[in-house]
UniProtKB/TrEMBL annotation:
This is Uncharacterized protein. It comes from Radiobacillus deserti. It comes from the Bacteria.
Length: 141
């Protein structure tokens, strides 16, 4: 009897794990949101191990500016709006038309269903705080 219960629990666990690991992002998601002279670009796409988030900040102004931010420049959180900009301060000069790309962020596949992605870019220009926030739904099947 105990062996039967252990086998049943093992089968249920296997099915649950395979449901999570077999889930795929239904379609890529693109976000472009402009605040003042800055455009936050995010692309969410499937990869071999789950999905990745590509992030960049584009400057559309007419003069060179000094951008100051803590890491990460663009924070991504899943299913909860929880951002933490506590990394080391980074300074970057941006000329008109510059794009400031960040390294891709990799995530394991999520459970099947709809999930909310919270996107938050935060930085200072001329000692003024600029916040760019966006929320999107992603679907795994």
């Amino acid at each position: 009897m105990i062996l039967l219960i252990i086998v049943a629990i093992g089968c249920i666990t296997f099915v649950c794990i395979s449901q999570i690991s077999n889930a795929k992002l239904v379609k890529p998601v693109k976000v472009s949101k402009q605040v003042e002279d800055f455009v936050l670009h995010v692309r969410i796409e499937q990869n071999e191990d789950g999905f990745q988030v590509l992030r960049a900040l584009e400057y559309k102004g007419t003069k060179t500016v000094e951008l100051l931010h803590r890491t990460p420049l663009i924070s991504i959180s899943i299913d909860r709006n929880n951002h933490d900009f506590t990394g080391s301060p980074v300074s970057r000069t941006m000329d008109p038309g510059d794009k400031y790309a960040r390294d891709p962020r990799h995530f394991e596949a999520l459970e099947k269903g709809t999930h909310t992605i919270f996107i938050h870019g935060q930085f200072y220009v001329n000692n003024e705080l600029v916040d760019i926030e966006e929320t999107r739904e992603i679907v795994f099947e």
